[in-house]
Amino acid sequence: MQPRVLIALLIVLGLPGLSSCTTLPAAASAHAPLAVARDDLQAFALAGRFSVRQEGKNYPGRLHWRHDGDRDELLLSSPFGQGLAEIVSDAGGARLATSDGSSYTAATADELLQSILAYPLPLSKLLDWLRGHHPDGGDLARDSLGRPLSLRHEDWRIDYEYDSDDPQALPGRLFVEHESGFALRLRIEEWQMWPTALPNRLPAVDCIP
Fold this sequence. Notes:
The protein is mainly beta. The protein has three helices and twelve strands, in the order αβββββββααβββββ.
């Protein structure tokens, strides 16, 4: 079975979690005021729900993501919270571990998402899109409060929604669509700023049997 087909089945079926599951500590609510303005967002953690549309099919799940400098740690879970796959990337490369014990490596997380999950989603660009940045000549539209409203970047369109009227609010919803038809819907339920560097890995918790 191809790895990307395996992952799709794991997401759909919600099989038991990773043998060494990980999770994030409690984060601040997306509705609560944050000490860091959107323009100053650097190291962060977020948690939320996502839905990926690929080749006419939808794959829902949950996401925990921690980012600090060149290190990213992502935990993909079923809609019921059972760990399915973990991606860790830094300057030395990227590794994806699945709930069946398989492990894959690549030079970058972008390559893993493309080759293993068949997702053309560039994680490195998603970091910019979350903050409303538009490198390489992107076209950004802002709402009446000056916040990112929609962004066109290369073959991508990104739309933003917010949970408050704060001009520096972080997005509560992100809609990402590629001209090929691939689409990501991300509902960010929790944001947390990280003032210090990340530990070597996320703290381990017991898996759901």
